[in-house]
């Protein structure tokens, strides 16, 4: 017998983890914040554990919540991928794009209207995953992946899309406390588990090896880290292409001019078997052109 909680509770939990906000999770799921809260309370009741600390206007994962997220993320992604494969039987004409959630939210979706205006005849199926697309398992048309500069793979077409330029970002209130890079010693550092070297490498570049790069709070995704920074929990390492909208809107501040360029840019990846298809060529060229445009 399988012991599986309500899928609505799991969806609400996963969305709330990404945003660290019941309000934003509710917006994504198309329900009210109260509904998200009730779904998560029901999940907590089922598990007999508290998953979130509730604060005024923000939430924070408990240690149990972080552990539960790490354990359910992969199964949920596999369930999503299996469902996508079955649904694709009725969406054979749709072009499937797999990308990281943060890249989709902060780079691709803000440009989606322009894409649809240019290619209204191309139906697109957008799938997000914290892990790179697995072309041996999944039959995606295109994916966005972080790969080493100059990577080549037999049977794959790989095009560099965007450099990964990294630097600290924080809320305007936190920015008032850090006038110089050395002031980072006195604030909470926010870490993204999939990118554990961002802080130590930036601090080394800034000549701040004396600061403990491991201190602070750990999060499962870039999206969670970014929202934690927006909500004033500490200072995160942002990727320029993914934080520009928040900086422009005043939700985040870039307190220092020191920028580190990673050797692992974002790339567009597709199989050579599909790469020359007109729809893929059109979307790939649109992405490469969009990457050249200012925010």
Automatic annotation (TrEMBL):
Could you list the residue ranges that cross the membrane?
A: none
Q: Which Pfam families does the record match to this protein?
A: HTH_1 (PF00126), LysR_substrate (PF03466)
Q: Which UniProt keywords apply?
A: DNA-binding, Transcription, Transcription regulation
Asked whether the UniProt record includes Chloroplast among its keywords, one would answer no
Domain (HTH lysR-type) spans: 5-62
Q: Indicate whether DNA-binding appears among the record's keywords.
A: yes
Against InterPro entries, the record matches this protein to:
LysR-type_TF_proteobact-type, LysR_HTH_N, LysR_subst-bd, WH-like_DNA-bd_sf, WH_DNA-bd_sf
- Family note: Belongs to the LysR transcriptional regulatory family.
The protein here is known as LysR substrate-binding domain-containing protein
